[in-house]
Amino acid sequence: MRSAREWERRAYILLTLAAAARRRAEWLTNWRKARPDDRDAAALHHTVESLNGH
Fold first, then answer.
1. For residues 12, 41, 28 and 7, what is the CA-based torsion angle, rounded to 10 degrees?
2. How far from 28 is each of 1, 8, 15, 22, 33, CA to CA, in Å?
3. Residue 9 in contact with residue 35, Cβ under 8 Å?
4. Among 40, 38, 44, which Cα is nearest to 18's?
5. Distance (Å, rounded) from C-alpha 47 to C-alpha 45?
6. What confidence score (pLDDT) does residue 22 get?
7. For residue range 1-48, what is the model confidence (pLDDT) as tens digits?
8. How big is the chain by its Cα radius of gyration, in Å?
9. Distance (Å, rounded) from C-alpha 6 to C-alpha 20?
10. Model's pTM, two decimal places?
11. Which pLDDT value is given to residue 6?
12. What is the three-state SS of the chain?
């Protein structure tokens, strides 16, 4: 996602990955554990939560 400089492109990537993470959450959980300070993982986590209504 770091290569995505345009907000529309970044939003598309986040929503696409969030849809995948909603189906199989363990890879996002593993990513966040392996790299707890990764901003992209945090953004994706918050996107998933938003889609889930939290």
1. 0
2. 14, 22, 14, 9, 9
3. no
4. 44
5. 5
6. 92
7. 566 568 888 889 999 999 999 999 899 999 999 999 999 999 999 999
8. 11
9. 22
10. 0.80
11. 80
12. CCCCCCHHHHHHHHHHHHHHHHHCCHHHHHHHHHCCCCHHHHHHHHHHHHHCCC
How far apart, in whole angstroms, are the C-alpha atoms of residue 23 and residue 47? 14
Task: Quote the tokens at residue 19.
Answer: 């849809």
Q: Please state, in angstroms and rounded to a whole number, the distance separating the CA atoms of residues 26 and 3.
A: 24
Place of tokens 């901003």: 39
17/42 Cα distance (integer angstroms): 12
> What is the C-alpha separation between 37 and 45, in angstroms, rounded?
12
